[in-house]
Amino acid sequence: MISKMKILMVVLVGAVLVAGQPQATMAKAKKPTVADAIAAGDACYNNKDFGGALWHYTGARDLNPADPGAWEKMAWAALCLHKFDDAHNFIEEAKNRGMDATRVARVKAWIFIGKADDARAAGDTTNAKKWYQDAKNHASGGVDPAVGKRAAEALSQLSSSSKTSSSSDSTSSSASSSSSSSSSSTSSSATSESTSESSSSDSDDEKTSAKSTTSDSETSSSSKKSSSGSSSSSSQADDDEATVASASDEEEGDATGVKEGPAPEKEVPGLTREIIEARIKKLAKELGYSTATDARGRLGIKNKKGKFIKLPPSIFRPPLASELASGSADVATDAGDEQMGEGFFPESRVPGLTREIIEARIKKWAAKMGYTTATDPHGRLGVKNKSGKFVRLPRSIFRPPLASELTGSDSAKEEAASGASASADVGDTSATIATDTSETVTDPVSTLEGN
């Protein structure tokens, strides 16, 4: 009996010992290592779970803070989470623990390009430029050519956009003016108003055709000089990549021909192919470009890259009396011909329109806009914005007079002027002002003061 009890006790003790061994083995297997933590972090990183990757990499760092590799991987994960300051701190720790300088530079290049991308998206171009330059510097020397190339391209784009930003509103204004001019010229019932509108559009196009994208100051200078015709072609010759004006108004045509629409001479009263071609030749000469005949046999203008450009709407405006008499184009370039969007003294070409009616409309419109009136060097009344710059007057100022205006009543003139003006968003004084698609004024960059 005693022997049986001893045997039973031995069996029980053995069972307990055997049962305890797997637990001890499992306890040993659960002990984390740096390699395990890194492997787990890499798996998360490859699955784009950057938060999980950072957690595992941080665990690896805690197990061995002296290992620069864990710090580097933490930096990459933080970078992907857009935690750029944390990423910078992590890579600095890796550097302090002996990380190779090239690897440190590569991580920093990616950090800076990430910061620059975010700043650019937020409209912070100042910091975006600074950080793109930092990214380019860190990526140089073969550290990461892809980052260096992307940073350089971004810097070029930002530089180009900053040069043309001051003329973007004027471009929008010109496009609106062009659209209005084209539609109004097809209406035979509004021939007189079409005449004044087309000439106003002409002033727009001649101004924008001289704009160069070389710099902000050159843009302002060339747009001011274009109305006097003194430097229209020279400003264009400085930039081989320029077409005629902005992308929305003077974009490159296709290689098959000039984008001038379906035979405009058949739609505009009095306009002939001879007058159109004379205008085209004169404009090409002023811009320093060449003329060529397209596949349809129509004359066009080619830029220095050999591409047809879209012709400005002023080429297809109604003909002047001088053009009808001689058949030659008289494209306005002199200061006396163009001022504040009025074209060739519209009161002399719009039946019944007088200078008194025009000035009454101008005063009413200026008061509604919160601007002031002033007389230009030619003695003609205009409107100045809050920056003290003349703005282009809306075409409704030069529309044919109402019957009530022809009576000469001041109250009637004010009433008509009120009808000529529409509600407009004044906004920033440096921006262009558009009352509607048929009433457009220019920004300070391309103001007309008879210059």
Automatic annotation (TrEMBL):
InterPro entries: TPR-like_helical_dom_sf. The keyword Cell wall biogenesis/degradation does not apply. Residues 433-451 have a biased composition (Polar residues). Residues 1-24 form the signal peptide. Keywords: Signal. The keyword Cell cycle does not apply. Residues 262-272 have a biased composition (Basic and acidic residues). Residues 153-272, 327-348, 401-451 are annotated as: Disordered. Residues 237-254 have a biased composition (Acidic residues). Residues 159-201, 210-236, 417-432 have a biased composition (Low complexity). It comes from the Bacteria. This is Uncharacterized protein.
